[in-house]
Each structure stands twice: as structure tokens, then as C-alpha cells.
Amino acid sequence: MRSVRAEMNVPASAKLQLVVTGAGEETLRRLVSGTSLITRLARLEEISPQSEVPGESAQFVVGDANFALPLAGVIDLGVEKARLEKEVGKLDGEIAQIDKKLGNEQFVAKAPEEVIEEQKARREAAVDRRDRIIEALKRLS
Fold first, then answer.
1. Is the pTM of this model over 0.85?
2. Which is nearest to 64 in space by CA: 30, 39, 37?
3. What are the structural domains of the chain?
4. Residue range 72-83: average pLDDT?
5. Buried b (16+ CB within 10 A) or exposed e, 47-86
6. Cα–Cα distances in Å, from 52 out to 19, 49, 58, 64?
7. What is the mean pLDDT of the chain?
8. Is pLDDT above 70 for 47?
9. Half-sphere exposure of 28 (CA within 13 A, CB side)
């Protein structure tokens, strides 16, 4: 599983703020007790409980809390959105090509079973990657 940093091309040297909203008492207690470890491992500048999620943030939900990494000023959001949309388009094309192959009765009848399985696996991997990229795009909005 790729991290948000890797999926969004966030430079490894960037120190990000982690904004936490909607966290319950137990989650906040855990964050406070583990702040130094979490900030070091995730290369964060700080963890900040807030009432609202800042705009232009990558977001994810864990349990009762919403976590956001504000990315404005860290990456060019327009360029990153365009890159991710282009990649989704390529994957859609790849999926359509595989679907066409697997929908061709002659191909399915003549191809060895391992080739059919390989195509199905390629399709599944492409769909999974496309779905992850679409989620990354949603997090940028």
C-alpha cells in the first residue's frame, strides 16, 4: 500500500502538519501520548486538533477521526490533479483493452488458461490502482 505522500508526489523532505478533526477522547489521548513517535515516523511538523479540515488537503478517516494533510504550498495542486487525471485515463484505456480481449470469444477459446488468468489479474491490478488514484483525487478537493 502506497502512502499519501507517495501517491501525491509530496517531497520526502517536506514537513507537513497533520490536522485532526472529529476525534474522540480516546483518540486524542493516544495522539497526545504518541505525538513524538508519530511525528518522527511520519515526518510531520506537528499534529494539530482543529474544528475544521483545511482546504486543499489530502484526507483520510480512521475510526472516529478525520485526518488531513494540508498540501497547499507543498505541491502544485493543479499540476498534481492533472497528473492523476491523466493516469486515470491511461488506466481506463488499459482496462477497456483487457475487457475487449476477454470479451472476444475467439481469444478466450484459443488462449491458454494461464494467459486468461494473467489478463484477469492485470485488469484487477489496473482497477485497484485506478480506484486508489480516484481516492487521491478526492482527497485533493
1. no
2. 30
3. 4-70 (no CATH), 77-140 (1.10.287.380)
4. 83
5. beeeeeebebbbbeeeeebbbbbbbeebbebeebbeebee
6. 9, 9, 14, 14
7. 87
8. yes
9. 9
